[in-house]
Amino acid sequence: MVKKLRYTNALAVLFTVAGLSAPALAGSEDVVVENAWSRASIGVNRPGAAYMTVRNTGEDAVTLTGLATPLAMMPEIHESKTNSVGVSSMAPAGEITIEPGQSVALEPGGLHAMLMKLQEPMTEGENFPLTLTFSDGGKVTVEVPILGIAARGPEG
Amino acid sequence: MQRRQLLLYGAAGAGVLGLTLFVGWWRVDGPGAPEPKGQRPLPLSAMEFRLTDHEENEVGPGNLIGRPTMVFFGFTYCPDVCPTTLSDISGWLEELGDEASEMNVVFITVDPERDTVEAMAEYVGYFHPVIRGWTGPEDQIARAAEGFRASFERVPTEGGGYTMNHTASVFLFDAEGELVTMIDYHEPREFAVPKIRRALTEDVEGAT
Ligand SMILES: [Cu+2]
What is the ipTM of this complex? Predict the structure, then answer.
């Protein structure tokens, strides 16, 4: 059963990484960001990561092209992968298209908002704004709560 | 794979098919999967390396024999996989309760350049108190990784910095230092905690 759930997650991601560019002009106003969270940092030298679910409630595909936040000079969507011999690696995920009615999960061990060049430490209990930019020019800003370093999900 | 297909084409009942798929999964991906050949870590007694723990003690594989042991590799500048592994392990240890204090749990850095003893001390302080952080000279880290059949690689990033690719599995040994099993990254807790209990009980059975 658990295995099945994981396949479903993988599928959800597959739907979204297909590189076809979305029809421009519409869509991002129907994007809903849910369950955003991040982990506190130790100082500013280590990169941070934030997680969330990005849901496309509209009728048109949307393409997430980038991130912006006053917290970090280089925010970028990354993907962690673990290969068949158990080696994990991380790389920029590029643009992410979300089909109508679909959502993309940014979650530990997979897609994440990588926050490089932190401008200030991420302090547990605080929030920071993160803006998601879409190919139609739309922007969605979400307040991301900062949880403890050992947090496992949006509930801590 | 072939057997699964034969059954698919045959007019086997749905129950039989379901069972076969389950058995197939069990053997290929599930808890019954064989360890890949050549990937099996050495017993701790056959490893040789010298590192320093986060409290400045000199340590090596010999320190781990006598109690069940959990070892994993990572680095503290890792924003996603490593804190996730550390918090997963902290959760498993919480679930084990008092039994957790009967184990060695060691996080070995693959990035000694940035992960000094002080950096390791600060970092492990945020997770379960049983977890120890080990660092040391690069050649000793490399020897440790070799013993565990783990790999790591430094990868430059756009910003001029670097990140590390590394084995993310958790290695479980019994009290005699023999490998019991590995917990893969992403393995659900329903499998992980019983695997750890197996390492703990093999200790009891083996203590003849
Ligand atoms: Cu990343």
Answer: 0.79
Question: Would the pTM count as exceeding 0.95?
Answer: no
Give chain A positions within 8 Å (CB) of B91.
152
**Other Cβ atoms within 10 Å of A61 Cβ, number:** 21
Tell whether B102 and B188 lie within a shared domain: yes
The CATH number of the domain where B55 resides is what? 3.40.30.10
Would you call B76 an interface residue with chain A, using a CB distance cutoff of 8 Å? yes
Q: How far apart are the first and last CA of chain B?
A: 42
Q: Nearest Cα to A77, choosing from A106, A103, A37, A109?
A: A106
User: A60 vs chain B: nearest CA distance in angstroms?
Assistant: 31
Residue type, A56: N
pLDDT by residue, tens only, chain B of 208 residues: 455 554 444 444 455 545 555 555 555 555 555 444 457 899 999 999 999 999 999 999 999 999 999 999 999 999 999 999 999 999 999 999 999 999 999 999 999 999 999 999 999 999 999 999 999 999 999 999 999 999 999 999 887 889 999 999 999 999 999 999 999 887 777 889 999 998 888 754 444 4
Tell me how far the alpha carbon of residue A142 lies from the centroid of ligand 1, in angstroms. Answer: 19
- Whether A153 is in a domain gets the answer no
